Amino acid sequence: MKIRYMTCRTCNAALPEKSSQGDQWHRDCAECYPKNALPTSVNDAREIAVHFEDRSLRVFPHISNDGLLAMRLLPNMQSYVLMANGDIRMRPNDFVMPEGLPIQLMADIERSFILTDRRVAEAKRAFEAYAANDFEVID
Fold it and tell me: How many domains are there within the chain?
């Protein structure tokens, strides 16, 4: 069996070992992904693939309404937000923290979006892979 090494269509760098690229697909590497210009709408986000263990996640990185890094994960189509303290939360796409609320109430609202189920592990893996540039760009 011949081993094929997949490379980025833009810069020719090697793609992740578990790349989902096939003969008919031509992916970009993480270095060619515009991390410094993420859209604020998931509808404008470019799709990436994150691979771990025996799974692959389709992810749409974007900036949340309050300026935080967010990831829309398929197939459940929910966006997860990485909080400053490292927690993962989920919130509606159109949620904006009301201005003028007491600090404690804002903290309670923030905590209400923290997930407690297995989806946290998947979301954390997506954020970690994104931070480590361990993904491929699908478009």
Answer: 1
pLDDT at res. 24: 54
CB 89 within 8 A of CB 83: yes
Range of the domain at 97: 30-137
Range with lowest mean pLDDT among 65-69, 107-111, 115-119: 115-119
Q: Is 136 helix (H, G, I), strand (E, B) or coil?
A: strand
Asked, for residue 63, whether it belongs to a domain, the answer is: yes
Collect all residues with Cβ–Cβ distance below 8 Å to 132 and sequence separation of at least 6: none
What is the spatial distance between Cα 50 and Cα 64, in angstroms, rounded to a whole number?
Answer: 20
CB 72 within 8 A of CB 60: yes
